Amino acid sequence: MKKIRGTDQAWENRALGADEAHVVVAPRSAREALDAASGMQAISIRLPKDLIDACKHIAAVHGVGYQPLMRDVLQRFVASELKAIVAQHEQRAAQAEERLAPGGKVA
Description:
Layout (H helix, E strand, L loop, with lengths): L6 H6 L15 H11 L10 H14 L3 H35 L7
Helix pairs in contact: 3-4
């Protein structure tokens, strides 16, 4: 297939791909297939505008989109919190074992 000269720029400046006459909503099956293939799910969430603006600024500095940046931030937070929860449960389990050991403190 031969590439048309200037196609990339035409997409970027919206000469191509921006005509509302060609807009259709993807069928539910296509959206579900995309979610399944990517392992992701689209959600809707309301966030403060200044938070979104700050994320867009940070993303621009790092050369990424703001949505992938926000996804990365959430993944890091969840991983950190899960580690903290596991550590807390391990500490409580160790304390319980000490209390149950012969000669251990009984509450």
